[in-house]
Amino acid sequence: MSQSRSPESPAAVARAAPAVPPASASREPPSALDLAALRAELDALDDALHDLLMRRFALVGRLAESRAKGDGPALRPGREAQILRRLLARHAGPMPAAALVRLWREILAASTALQGPFSVAVFAPSAGSGHARLAREHFGAATPIRPLPTPAQALAAVAAGEASVAVLPAPEEEDTPEAAWWTKLDSPRTQVVARLPFYRPRFVAGDPEALVVSVLPADPTGRDRTLIRLEAEAGQSRARLAAALAAAGFAPLSLMLQREGAATLALAEVEGYLAGDAGALARLAALPFARAQLLGAYAVPETGE
Ligand SMILES: O=C(O)C(=O)C[C@]1(C(=O)O)C=C[C@@H](O)C=C1
User: Fold this and answer.
1) Where does ligand 1 bind, in terms of residues with CB under 6 Å?
2) Which SMART domains did the record assign (predicted)?
3) Residue 276 lies in a domain
4) Residue whose CA is at the smallest distance from ligand 1 atom 10
């Protein structure tokens, strides 16, 4: 190939052009021409994105019409977690990952609503509650979200079919008996299906976290945690509960206790998705406690770190 360039090639034109063009050369400064070209390209990309979104929603409409998912809530928290993890794994370039997740949360929320009525009950003692914000960010701008003054009322709304899901504070060791809603969770009728926020750029201790409760179990995602509620005799020590769980193959990631009259209730968080795992369920049933019950599972949230 010849190394010489034709006088019309862009490089040649650039070399030949004076460093500062005379004012008469063009009515618009070069930057304005660039801006118009860039905006035209942005418009073309917006149209392409919009076309794809319209196709995606038409497909969700077909999925709903097929009745392949049967009755019950359209929400599939496990599937949503897999979609977000896949997109985060392929994400590159200057768009913040948090913006990617925010866009897809709106898409997934609208796609859930397209399949049937969907609403949220959130325990929110005040209007600006962090858990109300978590619910809004996860379930989207258009989803009906009802703030309720106690966790018990939010759970009752789901049990009565008045809300599709409840958003409740992630349990903490210092919770009062009223705040420790997990002691009353009527599993498997209602169970934990997700943990919020699913994505955050970095972990900040003290930021609000929530669990989502629904009537339909979440699907396994490959990276899940299961919640187990143990009922033991009064005065049972934390060390003994933890040791018994570990001996059965369920080393707890966290273990919270609530003393209730003649019983000690414990909430253990363990690695993996145990529902449907016959071996794990047999080991759980063989634990030396009055009762061991699964309270649900959630996809392990992602951070950008
Ligand atoms: O895969 C499904 O079951 C869907 O309903 C589709 C879809 C989606 O838009 O991708 C929508 C809502 C569900 O929570 C999960 C995924």
Assistant:
1) 60, 63, 69, 74-76, 79-80, 83, 108, 111-112, 115
2) CM_2
3) yes
4) 108
* 238 within a domain of the structure (yes/no): yes
Ligand 1 atom nearest the C-alpha of 77 is: 14
CATH code (residue 113): 3.30.70.260
Distance 79 CA to ligand 1 centre (A): 7
Q: Tell me, yes or no, whether 236 lies in a domain.
A: yes
Number of compact structural domains in the chain: 1
Give residue 283's domain range: 108-303
Give the residue, by CA position, lying nearest to ligand 1 atom 3.
Answer: 76
pLDDT digits (tens, 9 = 90+) for 134-154: 999 999 999 999 999 999 999
| CA-wise closest residue to 199 among 96, 69, 73 | 96
CA–CA gap between residue 161 and residue 226 (Å, rounded): 24
Contacts of 67 (CB under 8 A, 6+ apart): none
Summarised one tens digit per residue, pLDDT across range 184-219 is 999 999 999 999 999 999 989 889 999 999 999 999
Atom number, ligand 1, closest to the C-alpha of residue 69: 3
Instruction: Please write the tens of the pLDDT for every residue from 223-249.
Output: 999 999 999 998 889 999 999 999 999
Is 68 a domain residue? Answer: no
Ligand 1, closest atom to CA 83?
A: 10
